[in-house]
Amino acid sequence: EAQVTQNPRYLITVTGKKLTVTCSQNMNHEYMSWYRQDPGLGLRQIYYSMNVEVTDKGDVPEGYKVSRKEKRNFPLILESPSPNQTSLYFCASSQNGDTQYFGPGTRLTVL
Amino acid sequence: SQQGEEDPQALSIQEGENATMNCSYKTSINNLQWYRQNSGRGLVHLILIRSNEREKHSGRLRVTLDTSKKSSSLLITASRAADTASYFCATDPGAYGNNRLAFGKGNQVVVIP
After folding, report:
1. A31/B99 touch (CB, cutoff 8 Å), yes or no
2. Are A36 and A60 in contact, with CB atoms under 8 Å apart?
3. How many pairs of residues across A and B have Cβ atoms under 8 Å apart?
4. What 3-state class would DSSP assign to A50?
5. For residues B104 and B5, is the Cβ–Cβ distance under 8 A?
6. Which residues of chain B lie closer than 8 angstroms to A92, CB-CB?
7. In 10 A of CB A69, how many CB atoms?
8. Element at B55 (helix H, strand E)
9. Which residues in A lie closer than 8 A to residue B48 (C-beta atoms)?
């Protein structure tokens, strides 16, 4: 089944404790993105990647890192999480930059 | 980056009625897309309309695009309770390959059985 998977789905952590949210797609897509969704603000793009080893900042990249060492994986790294990064995070992939296929989301709470 | 804005932001209708949502944006686009999100889950792509298209249909969905007014509308005909969701428009600014979709804040639709 074609899908985008994210892990973990739920995470509660404390300020400053490094964490990684994994994202994997099995559709051989070139493009992958990370978004965060906050009430009243909609979805905002954090980082995106057009191919292996090619990444670029989205609209809200501060406090986040990404890597794209393999085509299928695009992990999101929070080196020192803060409470303002409490949010619902979505990974998405796309073959040609058009239609995005979204993962199920990761609900992160930073205390 | 630009961002679509949906209108109305909340809509409540009876099952069987039509639901219409609008999206406005600010700069030129390559395409505009509509997505649906059920309560905290991932977004699901509904339909994409390119800048050189004016209208597109997919099942009970009809999307129009007016590039002169920088607006789009999504019509759901004969709504069902399962259509209850948030609907987002997303604009692609058109620089090929940069995958910089900009999403609106969403439109909450409630279909009452």
Report:
1. yes
2. yes
3. 66
4. strand
5. yes
6. 43
7. 9
8. strand B55-58
9. 98-99
